[in-house]
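#structure-requests
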Amino acid sequence: MTTIETVRGPIAVEDIGVTLTHEHIFTKNPEIEQNWPDPEWEGEEPMIQKAVDALTALKANGIDTMVDLTVPGLGRYIPRIQQVAARVDLNIVVATGFYTFKDLPSFFQTHGPGLMVDGPELMSEFFVRDITEGIGDTGVKAVFIKIATDEFGITPGVERVMNAAAEAHKATGATISTHTHVEHFTGRLQQEFFRKAGVPLENVLIGHCGDSTDLDYLKELMDNGSTIGLDRFGMEQVLRDDRRIEMLVQLIELGYAEKITLSHDAGIFSINTPPSWRSRVSPNWHHANISDNILPAIRERGVSEESIRQIMVTNAARVLTGRR
């Protein structure tokens, strides 16, 4: 029986259920916040309780599993997530990787092959350790490997992360989940890079594709083998949900239901996009938007329960297990 690692430990893949594949719970910046506390961070216990309440309601509304792609670079702190997971029935899956659009922090600029502190690429070692042994001393094992390419493309720093991700995938079989910038078609860059690095594109989940209305671009990514994430529902400052729904329905009608996952890229708290800003600019950008609004809307458009299950359960289980 295949199992999937969650924050509470391994579960059978059959128990993964309806899954959101690209989310965040807490996006933090400890160095900033330790020196200049964020006024919207209400404290550890109140914010943990806020997450518990939201995820409990989400579970009651039919969501069984959430993938939290908060990795280093976004303030990953697993002990906090463990406290949330211990108080909810919903499964939480976490990731390894590193989040940067351009440069790496000074530690990685001094440590590595040919650098001042010469040695092997530590990121590869870190990613594999997170997946095979656990993150820090928590015992919680990562499932996905997260990388990002934005408008800057594959910079030297991003290239190091992507190389480390490729090596970690080859060592573990874990799916690589990505952040992209659709206006710069960086999903294409990712596919080209990982193909050359020996990573099967079936094991690369290309994220943020729901920001695009370029049907040919999205079909190209899927025809090349990757699953795509239409994973920013509610982020209407980028693209309205009605247009995201239109693209989703078109892709299903074209026969691509087996290559799609859905999510929000939302969070309970983010220092980068604080709650007050989100509520003002994109009030539907929250973890319940798909279950409350998007799935009912595509049902009204004639999308079958079979297709919805394919996307929300079967595809999610496939990328979580790393199976092609």
